[in-house]
Amino acid sequence: MVSSNPLFRGTWTAKKFQATVINDIWPEVLFFSLVAMMVVLVDRFADKNLGISNQLLTVLGTVLGLVISFRTSSAYERYQDGRKMWTNIITASRNLAQQIWVHVPVDRTGKGTAANTTTLQNVIEKKSMVNLVLAYAVSVKHFLRGERGVYYEDLYPLISFLPRYANGEKGPDSEKLPLWHDDDEHDHRPVDTPATELGRETSPSSHGTRHDGFDPEKALPQVASERPLKPARNPPETTLFDYIPLFRLFRWIVRAVSRRARARPARRTKRKAYADVVESHIPLEIILVLSNYTAWCMRNGLLQPAIATGVTTNLTVLQDTVSNLERICNTPLPFAYQAHLRMSLWLYLLFLPFQIYNAFGYVTIPGTAFASFLLLGFLEIGQEIENPFNYDLNDLDLDHFCITIQRELHLITAHPCPNPSDFLFSTLNQPFAPSDRRNAKELTDNDSVYRLPNETGVEPGLASLRRTLVKGWKDVDTLTRK
């Protein structure tokens, strides 16, 4: 995700240049500028006036401006919806982790089948469920980026303990659970290749550690994997085609020719009933595990009905959110609309120099360049932010969202949920300040009945306590005003 003022903050690099749309539109801007230059040179040196009436400019310019404005606004609305959905994921994950960690009891005496576990086992159980909440957010990130499967450095360590087969720890592939029916078969590790500690790929193409040495996956569990884990962040490599889009045409021609040369007449075969690769919906699988845990807690009386309702509500929010994100990701603007809008804009810019030359003369060249830069830029921006879940510099920083959730969940589980009486009645707590600056230990050690300090003739007890609270309000209201 691009920081504020990316071109003027920090050291300028060519990568920051990609945060703009200049590298995508400059060939078109150059083309229309050359058309304007041709109009000017023909008039000056060939004595041919190519100027035409500007009535078409007025009519089409207004309509085209409104359409481009609608295109950009609709794309930005999708961008904002994506950010709102991730805010919902962060909020629901925080609430769900808090409810599991605080409200599911550790002491389960008299709780039926759940009473046979130890305190350590119960804490491990709750912490594992909180880790699954983080795994859900990470799986949504990979799901939106079209990265299938579970074998990633930031996802696999969080869910590796989940069951893999329908009948026990081992079994045939036909009994493998949907979660582990993942991506391409050719990515499997050879049998004679040992698993590494984290199962990470050791090839130079791995992007697990960033160029500045920052590796957030170091905070995750270190679990051996039977397959090499893919990088948590695997953006496409920047090539010359990203800076000079004209070369993409030559690349397409070369690929088309080579594909035609390699093509051979294929023998007609019978169509298979099912695809070779079975893809699982990883976020849905994790939600099912969390829902099953909630149902188990309710059956054993570990959750009060009101808290169980809150847990179910947060699980529903997570499930609804991924559906909305999928809608944003998989519902682009219709191609016919985009193609018609771009062709209309090209025709408008093509005839623009002919319409403004009689009024502007040589200024037609920079005027056409600026107009094409302005209109084509807005059109390209709308196309770029339409799907804000990829690795473009203007896309949402999904990795940052997942790391934020990870920090907050560890913050929640860092609290051991002690008995409030263990920390309330200490010398560091002055509950009635500023009207009464005695600490809680002094208030409870001297007498069980509250008495106003340094005042006589005041009846002790609840009336004295109320008098102190009112006096505290007056003191705060006076001391905090200038």
UniProtKB/TrEMBL annotation:
Organism taxonomic ancestry: Eukaryota, Fungi, Dikarya, Basidiomycota, Agaricomycotina
Region Disordered: start-end pairs: 173-217
Transmembrane segments: 25-46, 52-70, 345-365
GO molecular function: chloride channel activity
Topology of the protein relative to the lipid bilayer: Multi-pass membrane protein
Name of the protein in question: Uncharacterized protein
Keywords noted in UniProt: Cell membrane, Ion transport, Membrane, Transmembrane, Transmembrane helix, Transport
Any one annotated GO CC term: plasma membrane
PANTHER family to which the protein is assigned, alphabetical: UPF0187 PROTEIN YNEE, VOLTAGE-DEPENDENT ANION CHANNEL-FORMING PROTEIN YNEE
Regions of compositional bias (Basic and acidic residues) in chain numbering: 173-191
Organism: Cyclocybe aegerita (Black poplar mushroom)
Tagged with keyword Nuclease: no
Localization of this protein: Cell membrane
